[in-house]
Amino acid sequence: MEKISARNPWAWIPTLYFAQGLPYVAVMTLSVIMYKRLGISNTDIALYTGWLYLPWVIKPVWSPFIDIISTKRRWTLMMQWTLAASLAGIAFTIPTEMFFQLTLAVFWIVGFTSAAHDIAADGFYMLALTGHQQSFYVGIRSTFYRIATVAGQGALVILAGSIETCTGDIPFAWSVAFGVLSVFFLMVSLYHGWALPRPVADSARDSSRSAHDVFREFVDTFRSFFRKKQIWAAVAFMLLYRLPEAQLVKLINPFLLDPVSEGGLGLSTKVVGFVYGTIGIIGLTSGGIVGGIMAARGGLRRWLKPMAWSMSLTCLTFVYLSYATEPSLLTINICVFVEQFGYGFGFTAYMLYLIYFSEGRHRTAHYSICTGFMALGMMLPGMAAGWLQETIGYRYFFIWTIVCCAATIGVCSILKIAPDFGLKKRGTE
Predict the structure, then answer these.
(1) Which of 246, 259, 241 is nearest to 394 (CA)?
(2) DSSP per residue over 347-400, as a string?
(3) 299 Rama sector, left if φ>0, alpha if ψ -120 to 50, beta otherwise
(4) ∠ Cα 242 111 365 (to 5°)
(5) What pLDDT was estimated at residue 178?
(6) In the structure, what pLDDT confidence band is assigned to residue 107 with cuts at 50, 70 and 90?
(7) Backbone angles phi, psi at 254, to 5 degrees
(8) Between vectors from CA 205 to CA 199 and to CA 207, what angle results, nearest 5°?
(9) How far apart are CA 306 and CA 297, in angstroms?
(10) What is d(CA 427, CA 229) in angstroms, rounded to the nearest whole number?
C-alpha cells in the first residue's frame, strides 16, 4: 500500500492531540476554578459554565460543513490560530470590571472553536494515516490528550496558585495562566504549519455532489440513527448514565476551594491543582486502563453493571469528605483518587456502548450524534447543580448525587447488548 503521508506521524500526532485536549480543559475546568477564585457564586458558575457544553452538544449538526468546505489541514490550522487569539482575549479581559460577562463571551468562542478543531483534527488523522497507522497511533493520541488534561488541570492551576501566593493578585495570576495558554497555541500553530503533512485525500473534493445531495445525506444520517433498534433506551442511557457525575464535576473544585465555614475543605488553588489536576487525573487514567482490560476479557454485557456500580459507589468518597473533620491532605488525595478511578473504570462502559450503538453504515456520523447526547447529558444537570448545592449545602448535595446513582444503575437494566461485543478475539494482539 502506498504511504499516505511522508511526514513521520510522531512529528505531529503528539502535539496535535495535546493541543486538542487543552481548550476543552480550559472551558470545562479552568473556567470553574478561575471564577470561584474571582468570587463568583456556585449557582452562577454551574449555570453559565454548563452552557459552555453547547458547542459539543450541537457538534453533529454543523460538522458536515467542515467536511464540505476547504481541507481538514486548513481547518485545523485556522482553529489553532483562533484559539491563540481567543485565549489571549480571556487573559486581557480578566482584570476588567465586567470580567464575568466578557470572559464568558470569549469562552463561547473558545468552545465553538475547540469543537470545530476536534472535528477537523480527527478527520485529518484518518486522512493522513493508513488503516494500520490509525490503529497503531490511537493509544498515542489518547495518551497525549490525557497529558494535556494533567497540564491544564494540574500544571496551569498550580502556576496560577503560585502566582496568587506570591503576588496576592488573583486576576493577574489567571491572566498569566491564560496568557501562557495563548502563547502555546501561537507556537503550536506555527509548528503545525510545518509539521502537518498534506495528504492527497485531504485535497480531494467530489465536485459532482450538489448542495441538495449533501443535505439529503445529512437528513438520512439522522433519520437512520433514530430508526435504530432500542433507540429510546439508548438515548436514555446516554443522557442518564452520567447523571451523578454531571452534577458532581461542577462542584468538586468549588468544594475543595470553599472555606471550612462554608462546608468546603479550604484548600489553596495550588493544592487543588495537585489534588484534582494531578492525583485525580492519574486515578481517572488508571481506571480507564483497567476498565479497558476487563472489558476486553469479559465483554461489555458482562461488565456494564459492575462498571455502573463503580461510578456510583465511589461518589460516597465526597459524602465522607463533607462529614469529615479537617481531613488530612493524604485522606483527600486518596478519596479523590478512588472517586476518579471508579469514574474512569465506569466510563469505559459508556464509551464502549456508544461504539456498539454506532455500528452500521453511518458509523462515524452516528458516533458523533451519540457524543452530542453525551454532552447534553452533562450540560443540563450541571447547569442546576450550583443552585442546588447552595440551597441544600455540600453534605446534602453529595447525598443527592448518591440518590441519582439509581438512574445510572436503572438505565443499564433496559439495554440489550450482544454477549461477544468488546471481547478480545482469539488470535488478535
Answers:
(1) 259
(2) HHHHHHHHHHHH-STTHHHHHHHHHHHHHHHHHHHHHHHHHHHHHHHHHHHHHH
(3) left
(4) 65
(5) 95
(6) very high
(7) -60, -40
(8) 165
(9) 14
(10) 31
Note the CATH number of domain 8-198.
1.20.1250.20
- Residue in 89, 117, 116 with CA at minimum distance from that of residue 188: 117
Q: For 398-413, what is each residue's pLDDT tens digit? A: 999 999 999 999 999 8
Residue 425 backbone dihedrals phi, psi, to 5 degrees:
-75, 140
For 69, phi and psi rounded to 5 degrees? -95, 125
Mean of the per-residue pLDDT values of the chain: 85
Q: Whole-angstrom Cα distance, residue 286 to residue 272?
A: 20
Close Cβ partners of 407 (under 8 Å, ≥ 6 residues apart): 240, 241, 243, 244
Query: How many other C-beta atoms lie within 10 A of the C-beta of residue 414?
Result: 12
- Helix (H/G/I), strand (E/B), else coil: 102: helix
- Please state, in angstroms and rounded to a whole number, the distance separating the CA atoms of residues 201 and 78: 19
Do 8-198 and 227-429 come out as alike in CATH topology?
yes
CATH number of the 227-429 domain: 1.20.1250.20
Q: What is the DSSP letter of 425?
A: P
Q: What does the pLDDT look like over 31-86, one tens digit per residue?
A: 999 999 999 999 999 999 989 888 888 887 777 677 667 788 898 999 999 999 99
Given a contact cutoff of 8 angstroms between Cβ atoms, the answer to whether 332 and 275 are in contact is yes
- Measured CA to CA in angstroms, residue 316 lies from 290, 343, 402 at distances of 21, 12, 7
CB 52 within 8 A of CB 27: yes
Say if CB 280 and CB 336 are below 8 A apart: yes
Does the pLDDT of residue 6 top 70, yes or no? no
Domain residue extents for the chain: 8-198, 227-429
Residues in the chain: 429
Mean pLDDT value across residues 213-226: 78
Query: pTM above the 0.90 mark?
Result: no
DSSP 426: T
SS3 category, 24: helix
DSSP H helix total and E strand total for the chain = 20, 0
How far apart are the C-alpha atoms of 338 and 329, rounded to whole Å? 14
